[in-house]
Amino acid sequence: MWLKPEEILLKNAFKLWVTENDNDYFVLQRRRGYGEGAGGLTGLLVGTLDTVMDSTSKVAPFRILHLTPDSQIYWSIACGGTKEEIVKHWDWLQQNIMRTLAVFDSSDDITSFVQGKIRGLIAEEGKSSMVQEEDPERFREALLRFHKWFELPAKEKLVTYYSCSYWRGRVPCQGWLYLSTNFLCFYSYLLGAEVKLVISWDEIWRLEKTSNVILTESIHVQAHGENHYFSMFLHLHETFLLMEQLADYSVKRLFDKESFNREPSLCDPLQITKRGLETHARSEQFRMFFRLPREENLLEVHESFLWVPFSHFNALGKICLSESYLCFASQDGTQCHVIIPIREVVSVEKPDSSSRSLTVCVRGKRALRFSEVRYYERLAGTIRSRCGIASSPQHSASTEVQPISRFRDNPDDVTLMVGQRDSSKAVSTEALMTVFHPQDVENLDPKMLKEKMKEQSWNIHFTEYGRGTSMFFTKKTRDLIVRGVPEALRGELWMLFSGAVNDMATHPGYYTELVEHSLGTSTLATDEIERDLHRSLPEHPAFQSDTGISALRRVLTAYASRNPKIGYCQAMNILTSVLLLYAKEERPFWLLWPSVSGCSPTTSTDRIIGALVDQAVFEELIRDHLPQLVEHMADLSFFSVGVAVLVPHAVRQRAAHRERPSTWWTAFFYDGVKAILQLGLAVLGANMEALISCHDDAEAVTILNKFFDSVTNKDSPLPPTVQQASLSNSDRSSHATVDISELIRESYEVYGSIRSEDVESSRKRNKLFVIQTLGDTTKQKRGGSKFSASQLDDLYYLFKRQHFLSCYWMIDSPALMHHDPSQPYLDQYQLGFQQFSLLFSLLEPWAVCSASHSLSLWVCRLIDHNQDGLVNFKEFCSALDIFYHGSFTDKLKFLFKLHLPPGTSCEYFMKMSGALLTFELPEDGVIRKSPERGRGKVDLQAYLKQWQDEILKKEETIKDLPRINQAQFIQLSKTMYNLFHGDPEEEELYRAVARVTSLLLRMEEVGRRLQEPASPKKTPPAPPAGPPEQGEGEEQREEDSPVSGEVDWSFSFEQILASLLNEPKVVFFFERPVDADARLAHARAQQLRPRAK
Question: Shortest CA distance to 828 belongs to which of 926, 692, 924, 936?
Answer without folding.
Answer: 926
